[in-house]
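Worked example 3. Consider a protein that binds adenosine-5'-diphosphate-glucose.
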Amino acid sequence: MSRLIMISNRVQLPSSGGNQGGLAVALQAALRDKGGIWFGWSGETTEQFTGEIHYREANGVTTATIDLEQQDVDEYYDGFANRTLWPLFHYRIDLTEFERDFNSGYARVNRRFAETVGPLIEADDLVWVHDYHMIPLGAELREQGCANRIGFFLHIPWPPADMLLSLPSHRELVEALFAYDVVGFQTQDWLDSFLHYVERQLGGTIAEDGTVTVGERSVRVFADPIGIETASFEEAAAAAPARHAQERMYMSATGRTLIVGVDRLDYSKGLEERFLGFERFLSLHPDFRGLVYMLQIAPPSRENVETYRAIRAGLDALSGRINGEYSDMDYVPIRYVNKGFARDVLAGIYRAARICLVTPLRDGMNLVAKEYVAAQDPADPGVLILSSFAGAAAQLKDALLVNPYSPEEIADAIAQALAMPRAERVARWEKMIDIVRREDVTWWCNRFLDMLEREPAPRAPLHQLG
Ligand code: ADQ
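Given these inputs, the predicted complex is written out as structure tokens:
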């Protein structure tokens, strides 16, 4: 059986704390099953890049990491990945920075990855590359003569063709994807945007089976929506730590109804718009003031990037203003918490919430929406309010779908959710949990690997696109 070589910006070893994301757990399970290595950046910097590999092993999973130079981190991670590709792929040209140094840093780090992981790859191994940090890695591996089956999965949206054209290196970036055998997107919408670009800019053709051909190169593309570890999340939500967290929420809320939001602090998550939507609700429905409150959990991320510091300051000010206006001696409308919680505690908080607001302006998938559904009490589930611009909206059609840019739509959806009879809540939840159970993270992982395994190997050497 083929081993699996998984490559992503960062890696995660199994831990006993139960504090890991569903994605890490699923990828670790696949690695345990097939054997192999998870390769990535250690998160550490070194004076001079040496390519020295640090191996670690826990619970049947082996990780291999390398240190990068500070300049690599500045140009590749904080630069091209998080200041160019992330905003651009989330439709934010206004926040996108176009710097040649970022481009060269991105290319350099991908080459460094390829040079260090390349020698670890054995003849029959499957190679699975993850996310926007690593788009050129497949082409770099091919340059080194790697003929293995290599797949790539994009966790974030693919931007519309016109938007992608604003990136000076757009063609190079897209052509790099043709070095892979299989490329997976979260949804058909993101895949359609990719296909539109390929047809229009590269004159590519698309076959019924999802094979896209440009010149002499072909790649198999498909939509493979990522899921969560549903069974274990459902279990966690009913276990003691979650029940304890749920109790704590009830005790502290003295009979008030909880609306929850859980997101990394990121401008793509629409936090400011969400606060404004909740403010609109309070202003339109004075009867509910004092009866409904919102808990927004948002641990800071990417604080080396200025835009992230700015969004944090903006949210501090906005929550302060709304609380200043609507608080009372015994009531604060927005509890805004900048820290992470263990998964089982998070499950209890989800279960305590009558409503979950998931309102990203753009999101590849959004796992919080699925976690909220999995954590509900089947007899008395809460209501998910979900942005139509999250990938998850393609599957969770029984959520209350909203335009996250519209404070009125958010306010109306909150009012509708609060008034929703239990029978309707149960009916909507049953349809959603069915999908969240069926299309869980193992389903996603197996579909991808099955698709990759079906590709013929070895692969022909890399030719230039015609
Ligand atoms: P993210 O942008 O990080 O992921 P998301 O899919 O919502 O977004 O996943 C966040 C994860 O972090 C969830 O599992 C959530 O429980 C956890 N989390 C968030 N805040 C937390 C907190 N305060 N404490 C503990 N845990 C917290 C990217 C893409 C998404 C895509 C995923 C997976 O941007 O669109 O769904 O990858 O492909």
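Take a moment to read the result before moving on. The domain at 230-437 is CATH 3.40.50.2000 (Rossmann fold). Residues 21-23, 155-156, 226, 262-264, 297, 299, 340-341, 346, 363-368, 371 surround adenosine-5'-diphosphate-glucose (CB under 6 Å).
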